[in-house]
Write a structure and sequence with these properties.
The chain is α/β, with parallel strands linked by helices. About 1% of the residues have low confidence. It is globular. The protein has 12 helices and 15 strands. A 7-stranded parallel β-sheet has the order 3-2-1-6-7-8-9, with helices on both faces. The protein is 31% helix and 20% strand. The protein folds into 2 domains: 191 residues, Rossmann fold; 157 residues, Rossmann fold (3-Layer(aba) Sandwich), CATH 3.40.50.
């Protein structure tokens, strides 16, 4: 049962790091709960994520002590992705001191096992926020498979990032009524006000890529498809914004392919991203593996057409079939990109996106199911929540 009703319920949120795009959702939860965010620190490849803790004035934000291990994931002998493993024993100490009434832990890893251990010891509900898809988890090793099977034995509450993540949990044997299907969300307020373009780029149209410069993101294939179209006489500009280990390699590849009108720009802070999207005419996400693809959310809110790889978890949920392609099929990619440059993509529909408020209400309602003595407000759909 809940603690006395003269205080807000305590909620602990366990993360590897605090993403600035989710600050709106975290602040929403902090308004409803006495929220503690436990995190393992910023990863080295997130150089534009600064001062995020200051944007959470109503939450207790704690960097838990532990270790962060970096390794390069390889595929077919080549560097494919940059990975970070967080082992933060300090989570246990802070959970014991804070004594939350409920816990949400992100991803199926070590911290989720600690969250479940706390939940069993003190009879508190625990949710695991899962993002993996059948595609992103297809090659996990034997140790991780065994760990997840053990995790499934003790966890019966889940939150997912959309259809693709729910499909993966169902394949593991999780019952559908134990899953709250949510979405991956951004702080839409950053895209609701008018912004001037960050750059005036010619010729038009401008094809935009936003993300890391690593093999997993499929940027090399994008360069090949763009070069093929330019050789066939298509006139357009290519704008690539981000950072990563392969940036110099990709810049050289664009020269080798003879690409014209191509610009590489450094990663921008979240506050500047609205201006980045307003510098372009369409977004392309050529990823070879992504559990969601938040740049698609940002482009939709910026009223940009989106051409998206089928390997982004959000693709089928947010976009029309004609806006989705296989990045492994260069012919199909080139044809879809040609159509996009010619203005033939289906228009994106912002109604497919859930707002921060909608997601927050869904999560609050889910948590309060564990406390039947807490009555729901009929106006807002959640306890003590203001509209």
């Amino acid at each position: 049962m809940m603690n006395p009703t003269d205080r807000k319920p305590r909620l602990a949120l366990l993360l590897n790091m605090i993403s600035p795009v989710r600050l709106g959702l975290y602040n929403f939860l902090a308004d409803e709960f006495d929220l503690m965010i436990l995190h393992g620190g910023k990863e080295a490849n997130r150089d534009s994520w600064n001062n995020v803790e200051k944007a959470l004035p109503n939450a207790r934000v704690v960097h838990a002590r532990g270790w962060q291990f970096h390794y390069t994931k390889r595929q077919a002998g080549e560097a494919f992705d940059e990975k970070y493993i967080h082992v933060n024993l300090g989570f246990a100490w802070h959970l014991l001191r804070f004594r939350p009434d409920a816990v949400i832990s992100n991803e199926m890893g070590f911290r989720s096992m600690m969250a479940l251990a706390y939940g069993m010891a003190f009879r508190k509900p625990v949710w695991i926020w899962s993002a993996g898809t059948l595609h992103s988890e297809r090659n996990i090793g034997a140790v991780r498979k065994a760990f997840r099977k053990a995790l499934l034995l003790f966890s019966d509450r889940w939150i997912t990032y959309g259809d693709a993540a729910t499909e993966y949990l169902l394949s593991l044997g999780v019952k559908r009524d134990r899953i709250l299907q949510s979405q991956n969300a951004i702080n839409e307020k950053q895209f609701q006000s008018a912004a001037e373009p960050a750059w005036d780029i010619q010729p038009r149209p401008v094809v935009l890529y936003v993300g890391q410069f690593i093999e997993r993101k499929g940027v090399g294939t994008l360069l090949q498809a763009a070069a093929r179209l330019q050789q066939d006489g298509k006139v357009f500009s290519l704008l690539l914004v981000g950072s990563g280990r392969d940036k110099a390699v990709l810049e050289q590849r664009s020269k080798t392919l003879g690409l014209k009108n191509v610009s590489f720009r450094s990663a921008q802070t979240p506050e500047k991203m609205s201006s980045v999207y307003r510098s372009a005419d369409l977004l392309v996400l050529p990823t070879l593996e992504d559990v969601w693809g938040l740049v698609v959310n940002e482009a939709i809110l910026s009223d940009l057409p989106v051409l998206c790889s089928k390997y982004a978890g959000c693709a089928g949920e947010l976009l029309a079939p004609e806006n989705i392609f296989s990045p492994e099929d260069l012919n199909e990619f080139s044809q879809r990109l040609s159509a996009a440059i010619s203005g033939l993509l289906a228009k994106t529909d912002p109604r497919r996106l859930k707002t921060t408020k909608q997601l927050g209400i869904e999560i609050v309602q889910e948590l309060y199911k564990c406390w039947p003595d807490k009555k729901l407000d009929k106006q807002s759909g959640s306890p003590s929540m203001t509209q």
